[in-house]
Design goal:
Helix 10 (208-221) crosses helix 12 and helix 10 crosses helix 13. The strands form two sheets. The protein has a seven-stranded mixed β-sheet. Strands 6-7 form a two-stranded antiparallel ribbon. It has helices at residues 9-17, 24-27, 33-42, 46-55, 62-92, 102-109, 130-138, 148-157, 187-191, 208-221, 227-238, 242-255, 258-272, 276-279, 287-295, 303-317, 321-339, and strands spanning 97-100, 121-124, 143-144, 160-164, 171-174, 176-180, 183-186, 195-196, 203-205. It is of the alpha+beta class. Among the domains are: 1-60, no CATH class; 86-206, Beta Polymerase, domain 2 (2-Layer Sandwich), CATH 3.30.460.40.
């Protein structure tokens, strides 16, 4: 198996065993619980696995248990801070918005939301509402962190800009839901079917079908670098009926990210042990394409190999030749501008 890397396989096996505990931690002298939990924290699932250990009555070294409990308390405080800031942002926003991932996702899909580690706040607004959104967020103390050159690059090639506020979670203000694989998921695609979130007026959340497609496109674009992203997708899919999963697959085809969704489904089976029947509605990659894509999902350590394999991986996951050529052109222009110091 090429993915995940060997150092992260104990984490993957622990997620695969949920709601139980992977017996390999205790059975193998090569797997140290402290090392496994350190990797789990990097993948934002340390709290999820620790909760499973406690629920199953698995004993841990006293020093490790104290450290993991301290992390659990810190995550709880962090989650509360994210929700509190989202409520402040909601009260200040003068435009409609959709929350992506983060604390509100964890609140809807995790038994104990703070177990899912979060880092920043992702807010999606219409491209035409960007200026008003930034002005609204300024009332809560947030300011654009990027310089004019980086903002120009983001508007041209990316899908969000970065806002900061002292002693508060950073905000990624999205003007597109996602941009990658030669296509752009525009705000309207997620906003038109978004649903209200209790306690919020301006901020809504994506519908389940849209969320599944978005999460798959986002995780695939980052080469599933965090196992939490795969686990998130599993949690959404597990709540879906086969008809809803088929609707998500149809939406992915319409949006041009069907292969990204299919790859997510294949990795759910291979890495997390999800039943093949559950992911069948998401489709599958052609055999030759699957072999190549799966071989380069995991990022190499070499910077040069990362760039080469990323280009191959992304073009192979693009849904059409047009999208593949669009990505290749944008990639080449971006590399050239970077080499010339043009940003």
């Amino acid at each position: 198996m090429h993915f995940p890397a060997a150092v992260d396989r104990p984490v993957a096996e622990s997620l695969r065993a949920l709601p139980g505990v992977w017996e390999g931690v205790a059975a193998s002298a090569k797997v140290r619980p402290a090392d496994m939990f350190a990797r789990a924290e990097l993948h934002a699932v340390g709290g999820v696995i620790w909760d499973a250990w406690k629920a199953c009555g698995v004993a841990a070294d006293a020093a490790l248990a104290r450290k993991l409990e301290a992390r659990a308390i810190a995550r709880e405080l962090d989650h509360e801070a994210h929700v509190a800031m989202l409520l402040r942002i909601d009260a200040a926003l003068a435009v409609p918005a959709v929350a992506l991932k983060g604390a509100l996702f964890a609140s809807r899909y995790y038994g104990r939301p703070s177990a899912r580690g979060t880092s920043d706040i992702d807010i999606l607004v219409a491209e035409s509402d960007m200026e008003r959104a930034i002005e609204s967020l300024a009332e809560t103390g947030y300011r654009v962190a990027d310089d004019a050159r980086k903002v120009a690059w983001a508007l041209r090639e990316h899908h969000h800009i970065h806002l900061v506020r002292p002693r508060a979670p950073d905000v990624e203000l999205h003007f597109h839901a996602h941009r990658g694989f030669g296509v752009t998921l525009r705000t309207e695609m997620l906003a038109e079917r978004s649903v209200a979130m209790e306690g919020f007026a301006s901020i809504r959340v994506p519908s389940a079908t849209d969320e599944l497609v978005y999460l798959a496109a986002h995780a695939a674009s980052h080469r599933f670098g965090r196992l939490a992203w795969l686990h998130d997708i599993r949690l959404v899919l597990e709540r879906m009926t086969p008809d809803a999963a088929q609707a998500a697959a149809a939406r992915a085809r319409t949006w041009g990210v069907a292969r990204a969704l299919s790859l997510a489904g294949e990795l759910l089976v291979e890495v997390l042990g999800v039943e093949p029947e559950v992911v069948r509605p998401l489709g599958s990659l052609a055999r030759s394409r699957k072999a190549l894509v799966h071989a380069v999902v995991a990022e190499p350590h070499s910077r040069l190999l990362r760039a080469v394999t990323r280009f191959a991986y992304t073009t192979m996951l693009a849904d059409s030749m047009t999208a593949s050529l669009h990505y290749a052109k944008a990639y080449s222009i971006d590399r050239t501008r970077s080499a010339l110091g043009l940003g």
